[in-house]
Amino acid sequence: MIIISFILTFIGFFALSLTMQKHAKQIFTSINKPRYRLSKIQMKLLTTTGHLGLMLAALICIQHSGWALGLVYWTGLLTIAAFSQSMFLSYGLNTSQR
Amino acid sequence: MKDMFRESMRWLHTWSGLVLGWVLFFMFITGTVGYFSYEIDRWMQPEAPYASNTSDQVHLLSLAKQRLDLVAPDAIYSSVNFPVDRYSFLRINWENPSNKITGEKGERGREILNPQTGEPVVVRKTGGGTLLYRMHYALHYMPRIVAYWITSLCAMFMFIALITGIVIHIRIFKDFFTFQPNKQQRSWLDMHNLMSVLPLPFHLMITYSGLIFLMFTTMPGILTASYGDDDDAFFDSAFPLTTQQEASGVYAQSIDLSTVLVSAQQHFNQSQVRYIRIQNQNDTHAQVEVAPRGFDGLSRANTLVYQGVSGELLSTPNSKNDQSESGSAFVSLYDALLNLHEGLFAPTILRWIYFLSGLAGAGMIATGMILWASKRRKKAQKSGQVSKGLVLVEHLNVGTIVGLPIAIAAYFWANRLIPIHLVGRENWEINTLFIVWAIMPVYSFLFAKKRPLSKVWAEQLALAALMYLCLPLLNLLTTSQHLGISFVQGDWIMAGFDLTMIVLGTLFAIAAFKMHRQQAQALSPTKNSAIKPALKI
């Protein structure tokens, strides 16, 4: 339960970070793709995916441990996932322009 | 106008953060450590043999009963706590009848028993993890009420710093994931933001509930306004105790506890319970209470109460639930906040998330203090005037941010090194903590002129690494519960502590190494050595 929710929140945050100009640049330059501007539809898609991931994780947590405990789990996982995401963006990517 | 507002918020954030920052750091660290208080208690009493979580409780109860009959045959109250979950001792508690003539309360006792033989185990006297945990609200060396006022005040400042922090951090969502390494002050600011924003729900919850915890101390006026001077009236109506009967004074043989235990185990559908206790033993009004493992949402699952002579079930978990639901909204909010704060319900992984969030809180304070100093250092460097105050803050920063972890390690060292039979050894353990903590900033401040600050950081980080890494070794040399044995026995609480110390030590070592390398770079002639480098992550 925890692992699946964590992966979902991480994917969610990854998608959300892609919609942010700054991080999209980081990610796309790391795979040697000079163009990093996304179309409107792509942006919409990513935003939806991001929110869906987070919501789905919340649902799984609540399903598994009930409202009270589930929400505590979810909040905790959000923190950990967002932190790992930001560490991934700063250290995990193979960017030439550090 | 808007800028004015933000500017004044920035001022408030800076100064409310600095004024009580070190106390807050202490509260955050000790409170965070407190999420593992039982585990630390166990490590600090290594004499107690490993008690398996899966042992037969009926057998344990009979062992405990034998011992209780021997040491306290007339006890009016006795309880047996079983080794389950995070709790690793088989422990008995008792209270003898009060003196009929003087009305003095009867003697109380507690013992830890060997779960194999039922013999009492002589454990060293120690404050344990419980004391560390208690210090985060009751501090030390001062009356409780004074400490409550101080910690409440700190929590208030913390709350102000959080709210103003949200206001001045304009780009809260834009910077949500932003961390730019190797950019000196900018990196510290990023880290400060990350550690504040990402666990913000935790920070707000922990600070607000901390205030709520102590509100009866700090805001007695509200109670007095509606209940007059009779405090008890409020507490009785808001937090009714479970029905506790007075002793009748008529003798009646109490029921055999093992029968009750078996019945309760069946009722809970668990083979393990947390404790069994009996009130008014050998009296017609005797009552037996059995507590199950586990939680009902965030609060402890309800206990079962039996009539102590007939063995009749007096309350079922469901009937008690109805009672609590009829309680006021205030009480349920109060309970929910307190439960969230204490996190007793949290199973292992969630407990670690709690722990990490707490560390992030401490990190938020630490980075905030470092930012305060590094900003002023930069300005001072330009104008060429470094004030004494700034140097003092810088050294207090090192001496607390790294010095406090060193002091806590020293507390663990003291636990193993202070002779077991020394009178008042438990006081010396905690004195060690404060002495070491005091030495760290004083020592670095005294030699401030001779050594650059970054060297002080590197040294203290290295010392912390050494002290944490050697703890498992010390455990090996001084006890028979070292890693080799605890692994084989499956004593995960004991082994977990040692392993955690190794991890902590390694982290400190990495930090020390980075600090050292950076300092070496800064001192090399190619760089401008006149400017002290701001710390890098």
Please characterize this protein's 3D structure.
The complex is a heterodimer of chains A (98) and B (537). Helices cover 82% and strands 0% of the residues of chain A. By secondary structure, chain A is mostly helical. In chain A, helix 1 (2-18) crosses helix 3 (40-92). The longest helix of chain A has 53 residues, at 40-92. The radius of gyration of chain A is 15 Å and the shape is elongated. The mean pLDDT of chain A is 88. Helix content of chain B is 60%, strand content 8%. Chain B has an eight-stranded antiparallel beta sheet. Chain B has a two-stranded antiparallel ribbon with strand order 7-8. Chain B starts with a helix and ends in a 14-residue tail after the last helix. Chain B has helices at residues 2-19, 21-33, 37-43, 57-71, 128-138, 144-168, 185-197, 200-213, 215-218, 220-227, 231-238, 257-268, 317-325, 329-342, 348-383, 388-401, 403-417, 425-446, 453-478, 483-489, 492-523; strands at residues 77-81, 90-95, 108-113, 120-121, 273-279, 287-292, 295-296, 299-300, 304-307, 313-315. Chain B is of the alpha+beta class and 537 residues long. The chains are: A mainly alpha (98), B alpha+beta (537). At the A-B interface, helix 1 and helix 3 of A face helix 15 of B.
